[in-house]
Amino acid sequence: MVKTRCPWADTNDWNKIYHDTEWGVPVHDDTKLFEFLVLDAFQAGLSWVTILKKRENFRKAFDHFNANIIASYTEDKIQSLMQNANIIRNQMKIRATVDNAQSFLQIQEKYGSFDKYIWQFTNYQTLVNSWINQVNIPASSKESDEMSRSLKTHGFKFVGTTICYAFMQAAGMVNDHTIHCFRYQEVQQIHQSDL
Fold it and tell me: Which residues does the annotation say bind Zn(2+) (predicted)?
């Protein structure tokens, strides 16, 4: 039986696997949430499949997205990352990742967990949309606007509202699967069992 997916997911196998297993699934693990923050920042101006193809390289280069380690990166480490051809060598984004790790740790200390802080923007629940067509899905929302403003006040970089909305989609804070997609109902069931 052929599965109906969100149209973007059928463009290549990388997108298909990510769509079928991760996109829209609620994430409450702080390390995983930080991973999506890092990857979404690097994705700015690029296609998501570019990030997916380099995801494992990013994981190795950035110490499995361990914010405690990344927050302590030295200038030598930053320069070595700039020489790493297996990741996206954007100095601003690499430096932002270090700054963001430091801000991430401060939020963990203040709120108890990053999860507790970040999910407040959707009132600790997944926002379920009912899109018929992919073209109707917005690039941002009032929630992502608010998240972006708050993250910036905490010192985060590369956290504009569009990046924040992509993060919300990835972390399952919003279910933006189209209603005809087989994952639309599945993701909702995952969220309900998570409550």
Answer: 6, 19, 177, 181
Joined together, the tokens standing for residue 31 give: 């390390």
Cα 84 to Cα 68, 76, 87, 144, 167: the distances in Å are 21, 13, 6, 32, 25
Is 6 annotated as ligand-binding? yes
Q: Is 177 annotated as a binding residue?
A: yes
> Is 19 annotated as ligand-binding?
yes
Q: Which domains does the chain have, with CATH numbers?
A: 7-194 (1.10.340.30)
The string of DSSP codes covering 37-93 is HHHHHHHTTS-HHHHHHHHHHHHHHTGGG-HHHHTT--HHHHHHHHT-TTS---HHH
Instruction: Confirm whether pTM is higher than 0.70.
Output: yes
Q: 70-101 pLDDT, tens per residue?
A: 999 999 999 999 999 999 999 999 999 999 99
